[in-house]
Design brief:
Belongs to the threonine aldolase family. Keywords: Lyase, Pyridoxal phosphate. Its EC number is 4.1.2.48. Homotetramer. By secondary structure, the protein is of the alpha/beta class. It is built from 14 helices and twelve strands. It has a seven-stranded mixed β-sheet, sandwiched between helices. Strand 9 (about 270-275) and strand 10 form a beta hairpin. The longest helix has 17 residues, at about 250-265. Bound molecules: pyridoxal-5'-phosphate.
C-alpha cells in the first residue's frame, strides 16, 4: 500500500517503538509523568515559549487555545479554509460559544490585513468582542512568508488582539523557510504543533504559550476529556519525533516537487505544490476511473474535497516511481490514451 492521502497515515518506526516501550511513565493528570514533562519542556524550549502542554489531538489543542483566549460571546478571526474554522466540527461555537469570523485567505496562504481590520468589531453592545486572530502555518502546504508573520503580529499588538498559530505542520514551514521553530513562533501568543503528521508519531499535539495561558488550557483539556494518565509512552514517541524527524521533512518536500514535475510531464494539471503537499485538477469524468485504478494498484490518494497527494516518511522515491508507473498505465488504457 502506498498511501498519499495525508501525512497522518505515518506509523511509528522500530526505533520510535523501542523508545515507547522503555519510556518512564507516571500519572500525567497529577503532573507525574516524566516523559510527558520532558516532551513539554522540549517543546517550550524549541518554541521559545514559557510552557507547553501535550494533547491527544491537534483539534483538541486548537480548541483549548480558543477556549483559553476567548470567553463566551467573543470572536476569533480565521481563514475561510482554516482547520480550526472549517474542519473541527464547529467546536469553538458548540463548546465555547465563540463566534468565528472567517476571512478569505490570499493565494500565498496569508490573511489580508485590510480584511481583518474591517472584520474587527467596534466595542459596542451589538457586536461580539473580537479577541483573537488565528493563522495557519503551513496553510494547504504553503509556508507563510516571514515578513508577513511579523506584520500580522505587529498588527495584532496594535489592535490588542491575541495571535494563535495553528502550526499542525509548522516544522514543514520551518524547514521550507530555513528557520528554527523559534524564528516562526516568536510572532504569536500561542502555537499548536502536530506530532502525528510528518513527524510520524502515532498520537499527539502540543500547545505552547505563557505559563498563565497553559494553566488555563490545562483546565480546558481536563474538561474536554484530554487528561491522560500514563501518557509517557506516547510522549516518548513525540520526543523521538522531535529529535529525529524534523530535518528529514526536506526529503518529503523534494519528493513532492519531483512528483509534481512527473505528473506535469504526464499532462496532469498540477494546481499547486508546496512543502509536502500537491493539489491537482482532474477532468470530472476521470476522477472515479482513476480512483478505481489506483485502488487496484494499492495506491491511495485523497479525492475529496480536492484531489490531493501528500508525501511523508513512508513514501520514499521508489514508492513514488511506482505511483508514476501506475499513472502512466492508467493514461495508456484510456480510450484516447491521453490525460484529457
Ligand atoms: C491535522 C490538522 C490539525 C489537527 O488535526 P488532528 O487530526 O485533530 O490532530 C489542525 N490544524 C491543521 C491545519 C491540521 O492540518
Amino acid at each position: 500500500m502506498i498511501d498519499l492521502r495525508s501525512d497522518t497515515v505515518t506509523r511509528p518506526g522500530t526505533e520510535m517503538l523501542r523508545k515507547m516501550m522503555s519510556a518512564p511513565t507516571g500519572d500525567d493528570v497529577y503532573g507525574d509523568d516524566p516523559s510527558v514533562n520532558a516532551l513539554q519542556e522540549k517543546a517550550a524550549a524549541l518554541s521559545g515559549k514559557q510552557a507547553a502542554l501535550f494533547f491527544p489531538s491537534g483539534t483538541q489543542a486548537n480548541l483549548a487555545a480558543l477556549l483559553s483566549h476567548c470567553q463566551r460571546g467573543d470572536e476569533y478571526i480565521a481563514g475561510q479554509q482554516a482547520h480550526n474554522y472549517k474542519y473541527e466540527a464547529g467546536g469553538a461555537a458548540v463548546l465555547g460559544s465563540i463566534q468565528p469570523q472567517p476571512v478569505t485567505a490570499c493565494e500565498d496562504g496569508t490573511l489580508p490585513l485590510d480584511e481583518i481590520r474591517q472584520a474587527i468589531k467596534p466595542r459596542d453592545i451589538h457586536f461580539a468582542r473580537t479577541r483573537l486572530i488565528s493563522i495557519e502555518n503551513t496553510h494547504q502546504g504553503k509556508a507563510l512568508p516571514l515578513p508577513w508573520l511579523k506584520e500580522v503580529y505587529d498588527f495584532s499588538r496594535q489592535q490588542q488582539l491575541a495571535l494563535h498559530i495553528d502550526g499542525a505542520r509548522i516544522f514543514n514551514a520551518a524547514v521550507a523557510t530555513g528557520q528554527p521553530l523559534e524564528g516562526l513562533s516568536r510572532y504569536c501568543d500561542s502555537l499548536s504543533i502536530c506530532l502525528s503528521k510528518g513527524l510520524a508519531a502515532p498520537v499527539g499535539s502540543l500547545l505552547c504559550g505563557s505559563h498563565e495561558f497553559i494553566e488555563e488550557a490545562c483546565r480546558w483539556r481536563k474538561m474536554t476529556g484530554g487528561g491522560m494518565r500514563q501518557a509517557g509512552i506516547l510522549a516518548a514517541a513525540g520526543i523521538y519525533a522531535l529529535d529525529h524527524n524534523i530535518d528529514r521533512l526536506a526529503e518529503d518536500h523534494d519528493n513532492a516537487c519531483w512528483l509534481a514535475q512527473q505528473l506535469t510531464e504526464l499532462g496532469v494539471e498540477v494546481e499547486s505544490q508546496h512543502t509536502n503537499m500537491l493539489f491537482i485538477r482532474l477532468p470530472e469524468s476521470m476522477v472515479l476511473p482513476l480512483q478505481q485504478w489506483m485502488d487496484q494498484h494499492a495506491i491511495r490518494i485523497s479525492f475529496s474535497p480536492r484531489t490531493r497527494l501528500v508525501t511523508h516518511i513512508e513514501t520514499r522515491r521508489e514508492a513514488l516511481q511506482q505511483v508514476i508507473s501506475a499513472w502512466k498505465a492508467f493514461l495508456r488504457q484510456l480510450p484516447d490514451g491521453s490525460a484529457g
